[in-house]
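[audit] Reproducing an earlier prediction to check determinism. Same input, same settings, fresh worker. If the tokens differ from the archived copy the diff job will pick it up downstream; this log only records the rerun itself.
[audit] input (399 residues):
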Amino acid sequence: MTWKTLDDVDMTGKTVLVRVDINVPVEDGRVTDTTRIERIAPTVADVLKRGGRPVLLAHFGRPKGKIVPEMSLAQIVPALQDKLAAPVRFATDCVGPEAAAAVAALAGGEVLLLENTRFHEGEEGNFPGFAAELAGLGDIYVNDAFSAAHRAHASTEGIARLLPSVAGRLMEAELSALDAALGAPKRPVVAIVGGAKVSTKLELLGNLVRRVDTLVIGGGMANTFLAAQGVNVGKSLAEHEMTKTALDILKRSEEAACTILLPSDVVVAREFKAGAASQTVAADACPADAMILDAGPRTVERIKAAFDEAETLIWNGPLGAFEIEPFDAATNAAATHAAALTREGALISVAGGGDTVAALNKAGAAGDFSYISTAGGAFLEWMEGKSLPGVAALKASAV
């Protein structure tokens, strides 16, 4: 571990600037999903317990450097207060006299939420002056927003260069889980990459064939790989213009001794709707007027066998059109098996990405995975092997 944590700093009497991700869904001024708020609660509680005065930095929506009342963080305060179990004050700006006065007035045991950092163009522009204004409000910086760590913004990267900086509990858990999955994993490592398009995950596939032992390709992406091998995929979603790229990835996997697992049987239908008549056929026997919508049972057994032999699983993307029954069967079966192995202590399982989390929740398996990342873009960039500016700044901080 090359980053510092809350355990490495004395917070007694200090103002602690905590970057959090509370970009939560809101309807009619009310938070409809408090998951992200719940996940930052341990860090805020820890800062309070250690005698620190937590001041929260956060963004909401994409106001693009302008004040947009509908994107004010004021509407998040009731949910924050409920989940943090502490009085939450609110400042109508994140810099300037109002922010400074709110910080100065903050009493012990209270939490202060500053207004949306993205109301200032200096945030996304990572302007040094804006980062310095933020840093001037506190003594210590805590980054607990891995989901924003792939952005080189003032509140995620610039400020970390100016203050003693450490990872919050959520960031610490995320980085530890990801390091266990790809940094220094227990082998063999299996990765599942699903989703619609090869073109959106080129860098991801290129990185994984060099890092994992078995790569399972599912969803619409698998159709492109099958088509590249000369298989007629009927009316299936497939990027026929990407077949040369798919063949190149297959070649690179051979050179790296990475086994690529493609569907050997598939579930096809002539309509994409719930309860549509479907049948299971060999992967190379899709009718010309049908489309592949899920992996078949033989393929699922091969995936489960790969899990049985593995020590580590990384999952990004569903195996089929999981939103609609019966095309969720492969994803559900694979997820349930991975969850069981994880419960038994036989597998380290890390998953991330919006569709992935939704699919694992739908399968009832998410709670048993070793770690579920809600980070989206940051998780994907980490899987691609990219350096994340927010994490790099934490590692560079001399606490």
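[audit] rerun output stored. Observation attached for the diff report: The chain has 15 helices and 17 strands.
[audit] end
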